[in-house]
């Protein structure tokens, strides 16, 4: 069973490994543990992780400025991809955005991920 919860500092090293595994840790000083700590402190409500059997298998993070909501980054452990984890994280974060009053949600996507988000 997939559990979605707020990220916490104990998750950050595991999240770095997931980013590395997906070739997404291109700016460790921004997206690594130190960057995650800053995100956690300022936008923690929009920084979620997915767990299966208490094992962190993915994360999603976004921001909402009172006008626009944005999903900025998402990654799932390669061993757990194609199991609905990404979709569940997106649905959960979208629910948080909507409960906070966001009228719409945008996504930061690459050429590689654009089709995935389009299908959702």
Question: Could you list some keywords that capture this structure?
Answer:
41% helix, five-stranded mixed beta sheet, 5 helices, alpha+beta
Written overview of the protein:
This protein has 120 residues and is of the alpha+beta class. It contains five helices and five strands. Strands 1-2-3-4-5 form a five-stranded mixed β-sheet, sandwiched between helices. Strand 2 and strand 3 form a beta hairpin. The two termini are 21 Å apart.
Q: Average the pLDDT over all residues and give the rounded result.
A: 93
Tell me the distance between the termini.
Answer: 21 Å
Number of E-type strands: 5
SSE series: EHHHEEEHEH
Shape: globular
Low-confidence stretches: none
Strand order of the largest sheet: 1-2-3-4-5
Strand content: 25-35%
- Classification by helices and strands: alpha+beta
What portion of residues is helical?
A: 40-55%
Largest sheet: 5 strands, mixed
Radius of gyration: 13 Å
Summarize the structure.
The chain has 120 residues and is an alpha+beta fold.
Please give the structural blueprint.
Layout: E1 2-6, H1 12-21, H2 28-31, H3 33-43, E2 47-52, E3 55-64, E4 69-76, H4 85-99, E5 105-107, H5 111-119
